[in-house]
Specification:
The chain is of the alpha+beta class. Helix content is about 30%, strand content about 25%. Strands 1, 2, 3, 4, 5, 6 and 7 form a seven-stranded antiparallel beta sheet that branches.
Length: about 170
């Protein structure tokens, strides 16, 4: 066996050892699939949302919100006139949606009537029937009545408490 043969054998052994080390190290690293996501705890989230809402109300003493069904808070700022819409009504609204820290995440005007049976968040289905035509309201929603543990957009995280200023323009 010559010096070149010894060199080639050593090179093969080193490559084999290096391969074993690389395979060993790669099997120790965590993969994205290995991340364990704890199950969603709706009770803990409801408590966290309540703390966020209470802090918001404390920071905004001008808001004298009433606690309504399923944990929503609302304040009718302008009464409006006439009857209340129902869950079967088709409504037209103007709105601005903000996060508790004041970030506006959405605003708009539904000049095309919005069907309550359409895909709208639960908090609107509960809050808007408390209004009358021409009425205005502040609607403060725990995450379960908004988008839950999903995120509607990159600017809004999952489990977001949302505040809406809504004007009920009309309904049928």
């Amino acid at each position: 066996m010559g010096l070149i043969d010894v060199y080639n054998n050593m090179k093969n052994y080193l490559l084999m050892i290096l391969g074993v080390v690389i395979v060993g190290l790669s099997s120790c690293s965590k993969k994205a699939d290995d991340v364990v996501i704890p199950p969603f705890d709706s009770v803990a989230q409801a408590k966290a949302d309540s703390v966020t809402i209470q802090a918001y109300l404390t920071a905004h003493p001008e808001i004298t919100a009433t606690k309504g069904p399923k944990g929503l808070y609302y304040q009718i700022t302008t009464a409006g006139t006439g009857a209340h819409p129902t869950e079967n009504s088709i409504v037209s609204v103007d709105y601005v949606g903000t996060l508790p820290k004041g970030t506006v995440f959405d605003s708009g005007s539904y000049t095309t009537p919005l069907n309550f049976r359409a895909n709208i968040i639960e908090g609107w289905k509960l809050g808007i029937p408390l209004m009358r035509k021409g009425g205005k309201m502040i609607l403060i929603l725990p995450s379960a009545l908004a988008y839950g543990n999903s995120s509607p957009s990159p600017s809004v995280g999952a489990n977001a408490v949302m505040i809406f200023n809504i004007t009920l323009k009309d309904f049928q």
